[in-house]
Amino acid sequence: MSRPGRLAECLLLAAMTGGLLAGCATREKVSEASMSPVERRAALEAVSTWEARGRIALKAPGASGQGSFTWTQAGDRTVLRVAGAFGADAREIRWDPARLTVLSSKGEVAADYAGPDAAERFLKEQLGWSLPVANARHWLLGLAGPDSPAVETLDGGGLLAVLAQDGWEVRYAEYRPQGRLALPRKLVLQSAAGRIRLVIDQWQF
User: Fold this and answer.
1) Which CATH number do you get for residue 79?
2) pTM for this structure?
3) Number of domains in the chain
4) Strands across the sheet containing 160-165
């Protein structure tokens, strides 16, 4: 894969963010009968710091591959560490609303963009298409992003099963309990631009 392709892969992981999902997996139903969708959103939005660890596979015209990731969220600041098989080609992406920086495994700056549209410009320059990066951290939690219209389909337990937003479709194949909440374990993000499959092995709040 070319160097620009690897950088684009890293950001796709961040926008977002394995021995992975095969096709449409059967949903494992996890009930949150004690919490309505509104209560669940309020509970998740009240948590400003969290971490997700897992595996990812990306397929897009400009980049493809698979590996592992650790996504750390602290308010509006995201730090994403990604690596290929056996830890190869490890990178760290640091993103906030004003700047995006990609660091190599040696700590060298591989890409640096400033401004509120930094993530979108990076993607467009590397792949020729964009991803709604600001909404992606909400998708990871099983929520629609707050910044644009969305169509939500809930399952029988009141959890998000399918989300359509900003030209992307997010399908949630499995949730796992995390205290009173149920959080996504397997999800697929897809648009005309590409597909991202995630398996989240560990959540930490």
Assistant:
1) 2.50.20.10
2) 0.80
3) 1
4) 109-114, 99-103, 91-96, 77-83, 63-74, 49-60, 194-204, 181-191, 168-178, 160-165, 150-154
